[in-house]
Amino acid sequence: MLTGHSLLIKILDWREKHLSEKTFVFLLATAVGLLSGCGAFVLKRLISWVSHILTSHFRIGSGNYVLLLIPVAGIVLTGIFCRYVVKADLSDGTSRLIHDLKNKMYALKSYIVYSPILASTITLGFGGSAGSEGPIAYTGAAVGSNVARLFRLSPQMMMIMLGCGAGAGIAGIFKSPLGGALFTLEVLRMPMSTFSVLVLLVTSITAAMTAYLLSGCTVDIPFSHHAGFDIDTLPYVILLGIFCGFYSLYYSYMIKKVAKLLRCVGNSWIKNLIGGVMISALVFLFPPLYGEGYGTVGKIINDNFSTILNDSIFFGHSGGMWLLIFVAGGIALAKCVATSATNNGGGVSGNFAPSLFAGCIVGFFFAALLNEVFGLHLPVGEFAFYAMAGVMAGAIRAPLMAIFLTCEMGAAYSYFFPLVVTASVSFGIVRLFTADSFFSRHADRHNGLISIIKRHKMESAGGIQQQKGSD
């Protein structure tokens, strides 16, 4: 009788006789892409299903006080799942991958293949204000690592498969093949040869297409503007990039401050409760913060701005566009706090989707405010779309990934140029003030270009004074 072990031995023997290791890696990369794409699809559906069950009875025209309970329950349940079921800390998957790659720890545990999906479903389905990309990247990396270990690949090939699996997870969850590939290159910063980049592209394209086909060939945030970019708005797009850059500095600062606060809490139960209460309070005040927020984003970029007030205590109040601007400003200020409370209070989620959501709100706030104050006629929905790339580029410090991911998510290739401008300017503003990575634990240090120039001038002045003293 042929057992699983003996079948594996036969496959390995056949592979050694007929296929080179590199050719075999391409076949395994395709399999990892298929599995990661399926995992991304399943995670999206599970989150949507849980969220629908919990929110389908909400009243659109008033505040829903049950929001004060649902998110905190989700964080507590996630903490119970991690501590007592899988008995592992699954939070902040991207930071864990960066740590594992840096320390050459390529063999990930097999339970990571499924446990982040389940934990993230609880966190986000119950209203945690973050994204699903961190867990699915961790899952995809575990798929790649375990497939490589199963077929006894070398440590170097195992590293490539781990990185490709992580990129496949991002490609699948955003349906963005280039965004997934650039995640591995730009965020994980894996050293890659031409061969490994080709393997990464195969894996990412396979994952993105798998998720796209399983979801009925639909995109998450369809962008219905077809007129194309108006070059006359370019000066305002540059101003939007500057605004996104400064907001990104605030976003990153608050993310790390809240994380530092919650890390000071030693008791896991108390940490879950504090984080959950923070999320619940903010989600009750601003219901668009519930979950990943793609529904709100899709409506705003397609000019349905009233969605900002849905399910909230502000619904039905007079004030017109000024009320929308006021509420959008509050959401923009609160989003980073809610996201950090989710990720550091015991939730299992990611940071990329929150930066896209925050960018959409910031873009709406910027364009709507200029229109109201100066009587302009800026296309508010388009500016909200541009700012998604702007804030992601500045906050995550990954401009290329932000540009391609935003463009592919909305299938808006005719708007590639303003996305490039907004993301580049925003990233440049951030780099003027800090050179820190978003995934470093410390708060932003004074190590940006401006600080470097100031220190150089002070050192030069000190050297001149010393020289005069010696004369």
Distance between the termini: 93 Å
**What radius of gyration results from the CA coordinates?**
23 Å
- What is the CATH domain class of the largest domain? Mainly Alpha
Oligomer: single chain
Structural class: mainly alpha
What does the largest sheet look like?
Answer: none
Give a structural overview.
- The chain is mainly α.
- It folds into two domains: 4-57 and 88-214, Orthogonal Bundle (Clc chloride channel), CATH 1.10.3080; 231-449, Clc chloride channel.
- The chain is built from 18 helices and no strands.
- The chain has helices at residues 4-18, 21-55, 70-85, 93-102, 115-125, 133-150, 155-174, 177-187, 194-214, 234-263, 268-285, 294-300, 320-344, 352-374, 380-396, 399-410, 416-433, 449-470.
- The chain is globular and about 75 Å long.
- This is Chloride channel protein.
- InterPro entries: Cl-channel_core, ClC, ClC-type_chloride_channel.
- It comes from Duncaniella dubosii.
- Keywords: Chloride, Chloride channel, Ion channel, Ion transport, Membrane, Transmembrane, Transmembrane helix, Transport.
- GO terms for molecular function: chloride channel activity.
